[in-house]
Amino acid sequence: xxxxxxxxxxxxxxxxxxxxxxxxxxxxxxxxxxxxxxxxxxxxxxxxxxxxxxxxxxxxxxxxxxxxxxxxxxxxxxxxxxxxxxxxxxxxxxxxxxxxxxxxxxxxxxxxxxxxxxxxxxxxxxxxxxxxxxxxxxxxxxxxxxxxxxxxxxxxxxxxxxxxxxxxxxxxxxxxxxxxxxxxxxxxxxxxxxxxxxxxxxxxxxxxxxxxxxxxxxxxxxxxxxxxxxxxxxxxxxxxxxxxxxxxxxxxxxxxxxxxxxxxxxxxxxxxxxxxx
Amino acid sequence: xxxxxxxxxxxxxxxxxxxxxxxxxxxxxxxxxxxxxxxxxxxxxxxxxxxxxxxxxxxxxxxxxxxxxxxxxxxxxxxxxxxxxxxxxxxxxxxxxxxxxxxxxxxxxxxxxxxxxxxxxxxxxxxxxxxxxxxxxxxxxxxxxxxxxxxxxxxxxxxxxxxxxxxxxxxxxxxxxxxxxxxxxxxxxxxxxxxxxxxxxxxxxxxxxxxxxxxxxxxxxxxxxxxxxxxxxxxxxxxxxxxxxxxxxxxxxxxxxxxxxxxxxxxxxxxxxxxxxxxxxxxxxxxxxxxxxxxxxx
Lengths: 277, 298
Hints:
heterodimer; A: MetI-like fold; 2 domains; 0% strand; globular; B: mainly alpha; MetI-like fold; two-stranded antiparallel sheet; 13 helices; 4 strands
């Protein structure tokens, strides 16, 4: 849409140049990004007092990588996130394949509400509920219980983008496959699935990040030997701020940023039609 | 097999596994939690399964004296009210900050819109614990903010910024602000700027235009944003734990405490159910007025 080009930029009716909007936005991004940048900067600080800059150093990263507890926690985080995200994405893909179709059936709205439940309810509630559930069944708390908890809350994060992707597909392509004598199974494997793969990978990476970053569920469903990086960081922070925490925290931030960029890159809709994304 | 039968089987096989996982490991536990909230308390950290008791709910309001009489107890009420108040404050601050930002984003051209949406979304996917930890570094007595203020000579003593309600409000706003910006942006995105021009042509000033043209258009996004900020803030655990410093507890921490040092499962279950009810009421009020939009905004 073109605005009248003869009007000056200062025309008060031009909402794009209203005073304050730019300042507010700049302040907002400073508020959002400065704490993260300060944390990363301080992780390279050679000084032990943590908040006063004295010089550049990689010592805290070296210390973090040679700390057995940290390496162990990182390994647990990766094991949990890998199993939970792959399982959740598999379950979510199967469900999305059926839920994305246009036909109405009994309970469809209800099922969608159930799939959204894990991200609707504050995490602490299902975490303690599942804690009581596992305890009353006599489960031993550890990696297994944490993984089950993670699978559950990862499902919506995989399900929502995959379903959106399926709903955005052009039904004519499937019809074209049928016209060319593909049976439904062939049409699925040769036409639908290849188109869906970027959506599935995008959902997988999101589920992976969410699992990797989780604290609350891991904290309540964990036991001996299931310490993850966020749990480890929490323990250190509670006893005091150390530069090592800055180093691991920065690494976690950078890993999440890299993964989410990857996910958004995979999930972008190349031939998107106009309409909400 | 008939076509309809095949269709049903297909549906069960595809949807079943995910539905079963959430039902067994989330809905059943929530049901069990409701049941446990009406059971007796085992002091060793468990539940007296064969004993019905409303003690957990009584405990919300009263304290049982040694002789068995009840005395009003405001300790838990204060924590609940503080949670609601802090979440409400977070919502209002997020709205005040988020509205102009969403307005700015919505009036850019397509290329900039994509970049700005990406920049707003990005922090959400980074570790919540780490983002809150970053604020400890900023707010501490010898932290970045106090150091800068001391260096500038604005203050002579470090300000007590950490371990209070202020720190929790800052942390909550920081954690959930994107949830306010994105839905408002989504409802303003399609705004036709000629409407704003028309409003000015009809001699409305800027304030009148905001009130009569922009706010009505942004309204669905504002309501969605308020729900999406209020609900997670109400159930926050990490932020008050790290930034509140044990003095500024919220419901989430009180619940967690019952499964740790306090060892009172029925009370923890009752509090969990209470929080769940608060959340469902907020969502229900919203869904009744804006059917269908909740899904779109997530």
